[in-house]
Each structure stands twice: as structure tokens, then as C-alpha cells.
Amino acid sequence: MSGWKQEELDAIAKDDNLYISIPNADGSMHKPTWIWIAQAGDDLYCRGYAGTDARWYQSAKREGTGHISVGGVEKDVRFEFPTDKETNDQVDEGYRQKYEGSPYLSPMISEKARQATVRLIPAN
């Protein structure tokens, strides 16, 4: 079970824009960063367009928790970093379904971005 409520998944599915905030080393929250979000099954994922070099991704790896705002949903989350092919294939499909026709889709399903896949888990 992903921990996401169906009404949250429905609201998030209608919005292309995820804003993610990750704590700074001093505990304050970093300014929100805009990234894409995709659903695979009942789980939510995001990826670094710049791969593992993305600053927000590096912060997510370091801190393990953050806050998201998307589709009217505000939620504290923790991060997991799946690397298996099956999960990444499912996330690719989630991105294809949501962002079909975008010139940015191809980089978001590239091997570079796949290496920076993050599962968003509600921190309740």
C-alpha cells in the first residue's frame, strides 16, 4: 500500500506541476523546486531531468524527507530511490501517459533520468 489516498492521487493526476521542498543542512526548508511527477500503480514518482547531478536530487538523497505541493495536495514525504528495471519501466509508462507530446518527455525517460528516480511516500 502506497499510503496515498485515492482523492490525493486523483487531484495529483490532473496537475503536471510538482513543487518539492527539501530541508537545508540547517533544518530550514529550501525554496520549492518545480519538477514533473508521474504515477505508477498507486505510487508517485519524480525524476531529476539532470539525472543524479540535479541539486534537488542530491538534497533528497542526503535528507531523505521533504514536502510536496501539487494539485492542491500539500504533503510531507519521505524518499526512496528504486533502481530496479521493473519499477523504472512502470515509471517511464507513467511519464508517457501524463506528458505525451511534450518535447521534454524523451529526456525524462532516458537512462540518465532513470538513475534519479525517487518514490514519494507520505510521511504520516
Automatic annotation (TrEMBL):
Organism domain of life:
Bacteria
Q: Which InterPro entries match?
A: UCP028498
Which Pfam families does this chain map to?
Answer: DUF2255
- Protein name per the record: DUF2255 domain-containing protein
Q: Which organism is it from?
A: Tetragenococcus koreensis
